[in-house]
Amino acid sequence: xxxxxxIPAALSVPEGENLVLNCSFTDSxxxxxxxxxxxxxxxxxxxxxxxxxQREQTSGRLNASLDKSSGRSTLYIAASQPGDSATYLCAxxxxxxxxxxxxxxxxVTP
Amino acid sequence: xxxxxxxxxxxxxxxxxxxxxxxxxxSGHATLYWYQQIxxxxxxxxxxxQNNGVVDxxxxxxxxxxxxxxxxVDSTLKIQPAKLEDSAVYLCASSLGGGQVVLTxxxxxxxxxx
Lengths: 110, 114
Known about the structure:
The structure holds two protein chains of two kinds. In chain A, 0% of the residues lie in helices and 58% in strands. Chain A has no helices and eleven strands. Chain A has strands at 4-5, 10-14, 19-25, 32-38, 44-51, 56-59, 62-67, 72-77, 86-94, 97-100, 104-109. In chain A, strands 2, 4, 5, 9, 10 and 11 form a six-stranded mixed β-sheet that branches. Chain A has a five-stranded antiparallel β-sheet with strand order 1-3-8-7-6, with no helix packed on it. The radius of gyration of chain A is 13 Å and the shape is globular. Chain B is mainly beta. Chain B is built from no helices and eleven strands. Chain B has strands spanning 5-7, 10-13, 19-24, 31-37, 44-50, 53-56, 65-68, 75-79, 88-95, 104-105, 109-113. In chain B, the strands form two sheets. In chain B, strands 2, 4, 5, 6, 9, 10 and 11 form a seven-stranded mixed β-sheet that branches. In chain B, strands 1-3-8-7 form a four-stranded antiparallel β-sheet, with no helix packed on it. Chain B is globular, with a radius of gyration of 13 Å. At the A-B interface, strand 4, strand 5, strand 9 and strand 10 of A face strand 5, strand 9 and strand 10 of B.
């Protein structure tokens, strides 16, 4: 059974610093890995999707990498802003089923 | 395109009462998911539909939870009778299905059981 872990559970950084968020999964036979953002009281918004054949995916200040052999994905957010404060979740997909991590709660202080 | 619609956004009930949540996925999305998210945890899959058939309901507490997706479009999730531990956000998501597995979520329905 796939297990997804996100460490740390919470992170606080000053504005302008780069953010590094980690996601580990136990079963490397994944189809893709998706990163989401969740604001308080809201649903999940998809940020990036990395297919299993890809090593990384970029969108603006966001960059996500995938290393299936080590069971890890990393989300990098460059030059963080207070508006980046949210909970970030990763989900590993196998055969159309998604297993989520518990998320990393990020606070970016002005 | 319109997103995934869910209602109600908030619901407060007493334990042992019943509640129903509704979801309308993105048009053309064959796969529909219901997730339960307890505060501080990641979403947990309750049930997955492919069109109007159930693909996975292994984590659905079938003694109290039921779900249906008539005509392969919108879906209803029901809880009867509710327990205190059912307090959570119920998230509906959809995807095109097949090889396209990008999940799109609705805003969620927050349930408080007193």
